[in-house]
Write a structure and sequence with these properties.
By secondary structure, this protein is of the alpha+beta class. Helices cover about 25% and strands about 35% of the residues. The chain has three helices and 14 strands. Strands 2-11-4-8-7 form a five-stranded antiparallel sheet, with no helix packed on it. Strand 13 (about 165) and strand 14 (about 175) form a beta hairpin. The chain is extended and about 80 Å long. The two termini are about 15 Å apart.
């Protein structure tokens, strides 16, 4: 019984201390508006010729915050499919404005769209559809491998010290003195997080209570 209790306590503490993985917001390319075949999770897919011209769909799966900028590069690989760069060959969905252009080099597409309102968390929607060109005489069985990557510049860390560089609450590089003024100890991740210690204390208290209840029940059974 004591061994079982010990294992339970260890499992409890591990579940408290270890962080929970949360999926981040992800942009993706899709072969259909239904978003059943996408590049999510680092996947690729082969876009097929369906109809007069193949159409590619770009979407986003928002898991946190509000998504307002769609910046991406798409590479059309192993195919004769191309993008003309004409405004008539791409259609942003309601609220999105910006440009979808043919890459200066290679067979790619650059996307730079914004939405003043944005998409909130728990939203998975198509942002823009892109029509591709296929040269005359290309077999209808020809496909195009689609890969996509984000070109959005990552934000600087806030109230953190990274490689000796101090960042204030707005993500600006500042001096150590300005950093100390801008970032209170409670907000400074370098001093440790208060929440994990609180959870550990709660876990230890719960473990102690379980031990007390088990010991008490054992005494009752012995009588």
């Amino acid at each position: 019984m004591k061994k079982l209790l010990g294992l339970s306590v260890i499992a409890l503490l591990i579940s408290i201390v270890l962080p929970v993985n949360v999926n981040a917001t992800e942009i993706f390319a899709a072969s259909k508006p239904s978003m059943t075949e996408t590049t999510e999770g680092g996947k690729t897919f082969a876009l097929k010729q369906e109809g007069e011209k193949p159409t590619l769909y770009l979407g986003v799966n928002v898991t946190e915050g509000t998504f307002t900028e769609y910046k991406a590069h798409i590479e059309l690989e192993n195919s004769s499919f191309t993008f003309s760069g004409l405004r008539s060959d791409y259609k942003p969905t309601t609220g999105w404005t910006g440009t979808v252009t043919k890459s200066a080099t290679g067979n790619g597409i650059d996307v730079d769209l914004t939405n003043s309102t944005g998409y909130p968390a728990d939203t998975r929607k198509i942002v823009v559809s892109i029509t591709l060109d296929v040269a005359d005489g290309v077999p209808s069985t020809d496909t195009c491998k689609i890969t996509l990557r984000s070109t959005e510049t990552p934000e600087n860390p806030k109230c953190q010290i990274v490689d000796g560089v101090y960042y204030d609450a707005n993500g600006n590089e500042v001096s150590e003195e300005a950093y100390n003024e801008a970032c209170a100890p409670a907000e400074n991740p370098q001093t440790g997080s208060f929440l994990p210690y609180t959870l550990i204390i709660i876990g230890l208290a719960l473990a102690g209570w379980l031990y007390y209840v088990t010991k008490k029940n054992n005494k009752i059974y012995q009588v």
